[in-house]
Amino acid sequence: MRILLVEDDAAIVAALSELLASEGYEVESASRQDAAIDLLATSLYDLALLDVSLEQGSGFAVCAAAREVAPAMPVVFLTASDDEYSTVAGLDMGAVDYIAKPFRARELLARVNAALRRIQGQPTSLMLGDVEIDPVSATVRKRGEEVVLSALEYRLLLLFAQNSGSLISRERMRSALWDSAGEYVSDNAINVYVKRLREKIEDDPSDPRLVVTVRGLGYKAGC
Questions:
Q1: Residue 203 to residues 18, 143, 168, 221, 223: CA-CA distances in angstroms?
Q2: Which of the two ends of the chain, N or C, has the fewest CB atoms closer than 10 A to its terminal CB?
Q3: Domain ends where: 84, 118, 152?
Q4: What is the CATH number of the domain that holds 56?
Q5: Cα separation of 63 and 68, whole Å?
Q6: Where is the signal peptide, in residue numbers (predicted)?
Q7: Same domain for 134 and 206?
């Protein structure tokens, strides 16, 4: 199983990587918020282990990105910021555990193992019509056949699947997918991204049923 470790202290990264590797985990690390978010957009992980205070950025921002890209992936905070406000904020964002530094190695391993066990046996798939999305492995299938999407197309599909039957404005799409990166994306650009997604998931992209345009308002995710 693969773990994303986001920590800017090189000594802690080395110690944790060795500890987790001894239990059979594959560890990939990032020391900055932007690097961690890039890894989440391009790679698959079974768990994210995040420090809150990074030299460049915040673990909370990484957690928010993780919830968008892989909502079923457990997130565990490991940090010296163990005040009540930080703890509650982390748990409210969807983290499954909050471990304060300094930590005991065996206790940390036990809590990582427990976090991974929590998702076992839980339904992991989301459906949008006949399109099935597995948020854990980030794979998409249509009637059993795998559909290959870019990272952005996948995140867009996930947004629609999580809001099936609901109107999604372009402003909401912009906020969910781009604002955290400091980008501005025009309505025309959003239309192009939706068109590309439709070409991959719709039976007839010229007559879409899964992602329907609501003129002047945005899009409605099909059921």
A1: 48, 11, 21, 15, 15
A2: C
A3: 118
A4: 3.40.50.2300
A5: 9
A6: none
A7: yes
Q: How many domains does the chain have?
A: 2
> How many whole angstroms separate alpha carbon 201 and alpha carbon 139?
13
In this predicted model, what pLDDT tens digit does every residue of 124-178 receive, in sequence order?
Answer: 578 899 999 876 567 899 998 999 998 889 889 988 887 778 888 998 888 777 7
Structure tokens at 184: 């501005």
What token pair was written down for 51?
A: 């420090």
In this structure, the answer to whether residues 106 and 132 fall within a common structural domain is no
Range of the domain at 41: 2-118
Tokens of 61: 């921002």
Partners of residue 220 on adjacent β-strands = 167, 212
The pTM score is: 0.55
Look at residue 132 and give its three-state secondary structure. strand
The residue among 59, 92, 118 that closes a domain is 118
Helices assigned H by DSSP within the chain: 10-22, 33-42, 59-69, 84-92, 105-118, 151-162, 170-177, 187-201
Residues 97, 136: one domain? no
What is the DSSP track for 19-62?
HHHHTT-EEEEESBHHHHHHHHHHS--SEEEE-SEETBEEHHHH
